[in-house]
């Protein structure tokens, strides 16, 4: 590529956050927030495309993930921290206003940042997770073997993951989460038992990609990634009075297993999100999986760049 991705360790609120960035930003800045088991690298295709189109692309490793520092063990994981981290990153780079793009649990701080800091937000685009005005709750709507319930149980995932190295764990999660079925374990099974080494990786995810993820999870481990998001979902903000002042784009793969979560289809097809977002566009990608930005990068890039172009940053 013409522009190389640069890497910085940025002091943010008492820890160092690893930030990947590329592009000169003639047309503005885009901040990309990843999910689990993702890292900054999950946005590699979008970063390159945004930079080539004239934007500055910034993708941090969430605190406790990848090359970012681990928060103290005594510190409880909070979505408030992720929102504050985005603000601190913008301040550190002297960015007055940015597009914020979130995927998976990264969508939660993306939505929340737009609500708390509309003056710093040009628009928000989210993949895979619709806006919810109340915390997600799966205790009564999903079976005991549902992966979010299992991983929310202290010690359960640690024991499950601990049977394998980081590479095997990341590999298994990518295999399971790229499918159209919700990962649910039977009695006597753990989530890691739902796929084995004979199950091939998705065609769009190479062994070299897995190398990158594995190396970074070997460094970070899974302590904080299990806290954020799986043991923090109940602490999502209540936003029944939310009214977004910025444009919103929601992109959903129709083969994303999250589509089958309780309430998600109503949010996406039943007009629920429109109640909170006067300027909302929802786009479905028929073949898209949960990792749609890696699976079908050209389609996602086209949608994101179109959204950015439709809402140009006005010079002060």
Automatic annotation (TrEMBL):
The keyword tRNA processing appears for this protein: no
Family listed: Belongs to the AB hydrolase superfamily. Epoxide hydrolase family.
The organism of origin for this protein: Urochloa decumbens
InterPro entries: AB_hydrolase_1 (IPR000073), AB_hydrolase_fold (IPR029058), Epox_hydrolase-like (IPR000639)
Keyword vocabulary terms for this entry: Hydrolase
Protein name: AB hydrolase-1 domain-containing protein
Superkingdom to which the source organism belongs: Eukaryota
Pfam families: Abhydrolase_1
Molecular-function GO terms, alphabetical: hydrolase activity
Domain annotation AB hydrolase-1: ranges: 29-258
């Amino acid at each position: 590529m013409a522009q190389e991705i640069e890497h910085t360790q940025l002091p943010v609120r008492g820890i160092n956050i690893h930030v990947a960035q590329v592009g000169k930003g003639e047309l503005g800045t885009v901040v990309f927030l990843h999910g689990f088991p993702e890292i900054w690298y999950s946005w590699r295709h979008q970063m390159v495309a945004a930079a080539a189109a004239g934007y500055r692309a910034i993708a941090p490793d969430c605190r406790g993930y990848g090359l970012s520092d681990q928060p103290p063990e005594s510190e409880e994981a909070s979505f408030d921290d992720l929102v504050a981290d985005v603000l601190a990153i913008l301040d550190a780079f002297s960015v007055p206003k940015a597009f914020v793009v979130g995927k998976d649990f990264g969508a939660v701080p993306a939505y929340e940042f737009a609500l708390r800091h509309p003056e710093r937000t040009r628009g928000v685009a989210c993949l895979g997770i619709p806006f919810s005005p109340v915390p997600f709750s799966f205790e009564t709507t999903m079976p005991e073997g549902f992966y979010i319930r299992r991983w929310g149980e202290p010690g359960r995932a640690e024991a499950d993951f601990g049977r394998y190295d980081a590479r095997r764990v990341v590999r298994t999660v990518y295999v399971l989460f790229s499918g159209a079925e919700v990962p649910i374990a039977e009695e006597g099974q753990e989530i890691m038992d739902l796929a084995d080494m004979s199950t091939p990786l998705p065609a769009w995810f190479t062994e070299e990609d897995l190398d990158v993820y594995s190396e970074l999870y070997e460094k970070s481990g899974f302590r904080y990634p299990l806290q954020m998001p799986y043991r923090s979902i109940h602490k999502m903000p209540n936003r029944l009075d939310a009214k977004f002042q910025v444009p919103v784009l929601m992109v959903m793969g129709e083969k994303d297993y999250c589509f089958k979560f309780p309430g998600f289809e109503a949010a996406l097809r039943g007009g629920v999100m429109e109640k909170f977002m006067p300027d909302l566009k929802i786009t479905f990608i028929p073949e898209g999986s949960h990792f749609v930005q890696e699976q079908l990068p050209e389609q996602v890039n086209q949608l994101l760049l179109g959204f950015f172009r439709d809402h140009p940053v006005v010079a002060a």
